[in-house]
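Key result, reporting period 2: structure in, sequence out.
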């Protein structure tokens, strides 16, 4: 299910919590494949073939914030990861995953126009990007100026997203895909955490459904991480924690039906898009379990 984002034109990316899968038609009932049913070498091939769709589905650091704002949820600073310890991060592993976490938080800050916090967040992101040798894709001064002046929020968000997309592409093309996978993982877990914390206080049905639909996105994310899970103890620990989230999601049921096809013009050609509609069945108990495991894993990650 790939739904067009309605609203700010420059944010026409697939929503981070849109409930959209990277593979189009998922059939009537979506279930996780068994973890041992896909050989590692096949997993590596799949992750390479599917990576563009996976990145599209989970790499936008602003879409969660757009959803929260559209539901009239107030800004809550306590949800954000602290940047106070960022100077003390010692490994590329944790720098990459926190680059993703802070990116998700940056989207949240940008949407709610929290200038002072956004500038601090930008400075931290810039430092981590430099440490990972991808600082050339992050124009700190321009982004800082846009944040301070609040003159062009569309441009600020576009440049923020574009910077992350460029970093991701560069890392993957230069045999550093393991860092790209970590950055994307950081974006996902932080946006998931924001959604889970918000739904406890503001139990909107749409937000509840979006959280349930992450069962699909999580499977894609784990396929992205799987080739690296035995490369170090850090990766193994991270992968195992996400396996725990995956187990909690197993009882969630998602069914798909074909929606009305849509006709659009792209590059001078008429393109037909077959839309899908999903129905998410998640009980209060299942949602509570998802909220709890998400907070546990996210808080464990930011304490690294």
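The corresponding designed sequence is given below.
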């Amino acid at each position: 299910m790939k739904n067009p984002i309605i609203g700010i034109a420059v944010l026409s990316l697939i929503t981070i919590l849109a409930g959209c899968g990277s593979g189009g038609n998922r059939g009537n009932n979506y279930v996780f494949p068994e973890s041992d049913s896909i050989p590692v070498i096949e997993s590596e091939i799949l992750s390479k073939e599917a990576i563009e769709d996976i990145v599209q589905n989970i790499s936008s650091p602003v879409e969660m914030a757009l959803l929260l704002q559209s539901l009239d949820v107030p800004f809550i600073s306590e949800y954000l990861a602290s940047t106070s310890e960022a100077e003390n991060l010692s490994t590329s592993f944790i720098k990459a995953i926190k680059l993703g976490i802070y990116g998700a938080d940056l989207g949240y800050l940008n949407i709610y126009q929290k200038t002072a916090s956004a500038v601090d967040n930008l400075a931290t992101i810039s430092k981590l990007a430099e440490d990972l040798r991808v600082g050339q894709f992050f124009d700190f001064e321009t982004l800082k100026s846009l944040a301070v002046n609040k003159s062009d929020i569309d441009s600020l968000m576009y440049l923020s997203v574009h910077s992350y997309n460029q970093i991701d592409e560069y890392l993957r093309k230069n045999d550093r895909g393991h860092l790209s996978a970590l950055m994307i993982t950081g974006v996902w877990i932080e946006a998931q955490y924001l959604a889970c914390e918000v739904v406890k206080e503001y139990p909107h049905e749409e937000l509840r459904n979006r959280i349930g639909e992450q069962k699909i996105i999580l499977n894609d994310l784990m396929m992205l991480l799987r080739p690296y899970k035995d490369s170090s103890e850090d990766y193994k620990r991270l992968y195992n924690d996400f396996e725990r989230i995956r187990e909690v999601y197993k009882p969630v049921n998602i069914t798909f039906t074909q929606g009305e096809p849509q006709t659009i013009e792209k590059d001078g050609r008429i393109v037909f898009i077959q839309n899908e509609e999903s129905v998410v069945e998640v009980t209060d108990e299942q949602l509570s379990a998802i909220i709890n495991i998400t907070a546990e894993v996210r808080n464990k990650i930011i304490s690294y």
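Residues 9-302 form one domain. Strands lie at 253-258, 262-266, 269-273, 276-281. This case is discussed further under Risks and Mitigation.
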